[in-house]
Amino acid sequence: MSRFAGTVPAKDLQPVKNAEKAVERLVAIYDRNTALLVERFNAFAATGAVPEGETGVYPYLCLEVQSSNGTKTGLAFGKVSAPGLYGTTITAPTLFRSYLLEQLELLTRSHNAKIFVGESFVHIPLTFAVERAVAQFPPDLRAKLPQYFPMPNLAETHDDIADGRLINKEEWPRPLALFSAQRVDYSLHRLRHYTATDPSYFQNFVLFTNYQRYVDEFIAYGRAQVKAGGYEAFIEPGNRITRKDRTDEAPALLKLPQMPAYHLVAARNWGVTLINIGIGPSNAKTITDHLAVLRPHVWLMIGHCGGLRASQRLGDYVLAHAYLRDDNVLDEALPIEIPLPTIAEIQLALSHAVEEVTGRKGPELKERLRTGTVVTTDDRNWELNFNDLALRFNQSRAIAIDMESATIAANGYRFRVPYGTLLCVSDRPLHGEIKLAGMADVFYEESVSQHLQIGIRAIELLRAEAEAGTLHSRKLRSFIEPAFR
Fold first, then answer.
1. What domains lie within the chain, and their CATH numbers?
2. Quick check: 85 pLDDT over 60?
3. How large is the average pLDDT for residues 72-84?
4. Which has the closest alpha carbon to 262: 211, 189, 184, 208?
């Protein structure tokens, strides 16, 4: 559209009738441009000669909103605060098809927005299109690749939109989504690396844990659910697939990745993903940085913690209502003085799930379920520094300590993904019950299965909230936000 010339960073912008046609054109542009890039690379790999032809660019999606006074909606997304142009580069539109359709349909319905699709001026990096082939390339030819092919531009692969650094800029178009195409591609490849599963298998409802025993329970549960017909498939690292009517399609990995992921697959990706993130806030930040680009509906932490109160017992549950952030991994991106609000729907779902699974109610439930502040530390041996920490614990009224929960909550807040934490007390270092091998084994046998079932039941309750449009809280969104969830 000539009237957008010099305004929108794209070429050949064409109007499309509806969301379905928009996604079709995005797919066509993306597939054509990645094919050009692969063809050019294959020619270079075969001859080593200077490659000819185009390298391929990302599709560009643009919306024109003539009035911000659209149909009133109670949703936290799918609306804009001002009329004008909104745009973003797009990658892997087939992977994001359902998400794109949902977001575009909301905007066209609520604002009567006009949709335009064209080609951006941002080249698709070679390593995002043919990563494995590049990795296997001879060193002499690999050294020449940057001369002939676009490579990832880390200066443009950032979280400035999510972190609110662009809210005061008046240029149009304004961001339509939280992440650019390069930022999404970067994370899609990192997810494959860290979890050893394809991004297409990730489900919209995610459980994080920090112990392998939860994984063992989830594998048994997932396979049983698939055989019973409750879910379509169960995916393990290495893309090992179990379906109701067939055996696993790939052998089990001999060496697990850093943060293995397991997926109980349902239609529309509305199943459950469990990721064993291991120990520590660095892992928690890493996985949530990348998982956020898939726009999950919710992520929950279910793991173990140290109880800080004398009244707690091993096996008691802790529902985090607040977090004391001593993890130190997100302080620059999200200063620690920024409060992390709890999401009412998630708190209710977790508390109801504990009640249903344990069968306890009223005063009896309160004996097992404690709400309060959880400390997340980056020091695994914090007990050795207790004299310095005692005042901080006392002032914060903390009831439990772990190494991941506040990080997951902070990145959930940062990336507008609803979050929650339900921990299980596995030791009480301040009161003489330190986690020792024999005691830990007995505890794990009794607690892990029930805790996992609580997490899964909470997901079921939250799935209903997402269906009703009441899960995504407006408290996670600012006064100027991208329209897409």
1. 2-189 (3.30.1730.10), 196-476 (3.40.50.1580)
2. yes
3. 86
4. 208
